[in-house]
Specification:
504 residues, 12% strand, single chain, eight-stranded mixed β-sheet, alpha/beta
Length: 504
Amino acid sequence: MRVISFLGAGQYEPTHYLWPESGASCCSRYVAVALAHFLEAREVVVLATEKAEAVHGQALTEAFAEAGLTPPRLERIRNGQSPQELWENFNLLSELLRAGKGEETVLDITHGFRSQPFFAGAVVSFVRATEPEPPAIRMVYGAFDAPAADKTPIWDLTTFVDLVDWTQAIAIFLASGQGQALAEKALALGRKLAKAWAEHKQDRPPRIEKFAKALHAFSQALATVRTGELLVARDARASAAKRLMQALDEARSDLETYLPPVAQVFEGIKTMLEPLQLRQDHLAGLEGQKVVAELARLYLHFGRYAEAAITLREGWVNLYARPEATRPGESFDPEGRRAAEARLQQAGHAERELMGLRNDIEHGGYRKKLLPADAISEQLERFVSEFERAQPSEVAPPKPGAVWFVSRHPGAVEWARRQGIQVDRLVDHLEIDQVQESDVVIGTLPVHLAAAVSARGARFLNLSLDLPPDERGKELSTDDLERFGARLEEYRLERIGEHRPASI
């Protein structure tokens, strides 16, 4: 245990200092003596100006000796009559506080003069905010003007320093969605209160620890874009947004008791969560569209553009999907999701442009024509507004005998047009469950997919080329295709069975 105490030049009167935690008392002119006695301090550092040391230095040392305590170490500080002197004092105190790693430091401001108590609080906040592993620091004050039974109580002011940390953590969460620091603060307080409650078990147990865990789960789901975890209930388990809202309501009375100002600020978190409360177990329909749009707006508010783009793009898929394909988790329907993706591609809404924007972000701008950062944020704002108003296009099912052309290469598409091929469905990816008997599928498909086309009674025409080795892997133009003998060859493939590698 370490004690750091200020020493002024005033005329201090003897008093019986009271340590409320144990009820012990100690009579002395100097609070540093009482603290060293109460805490059995290993080290006591006293910060004093030249004048204060001249007035009290000798007497303080003698008081420690008379009490049988290790002599204090006096550190000279400036009078604080200029910003430069204040910064020198700031640096000295911050170094002393950082030196206390591994043990608790009690900072006493009882005899602090002028701005010393104020800047001491600022130093404590600075050290706790900037150190990767902040030292344990308590701040105390001997309330000489508030005697209790002729004794001077020593008040623990650490809660008020903690309030600064809480405020910073809340501000970070409200500005960025990063809730780890706030969750850790709440968890530490919750465990402290739970331990105190276990000693007497009066009234109900505190619920701040539950709030901390719900906040951690919400923040993690937000950071990893776990849309289902964030918004959708699973069986009897509520969504992360709903659990956090409920935990916040339950912990409110505890927060109002132990940290009243923090309870007021927490209203901002409740305001943020309210639009994310989904009243169904899937993200389809108008209700799902509304909540997904709110989530995208929240990501934009946080400046998290990649997450906003992902949320919007998947939200657009939801507009074309059955409920089972909008419910991430064990009951998710991947086949239905792929079908919705195909319908989305056929619809041709602004989502194509959105996909390009998302790819631009996800590839880190590694392209010749990239959007500036300001343009990305502006476009995402526009996409959110368009998504809120979007209606899924009515995509008619393919008629029997429809011609599919499967390709993502512009040269191949133009080649088909030159050949006079009437294409009913031009797609990048074939959803096999949409292919009907008597359809014709044109393209270059994987063998298993071509076999599936044949199995459904449809015809498969492969786009064949006589491609030299040095031309492979290149994007071919229409002229290139004609030069390399592009033609349609019909195949009928049959899947014989599945074999393990060891049985071949």
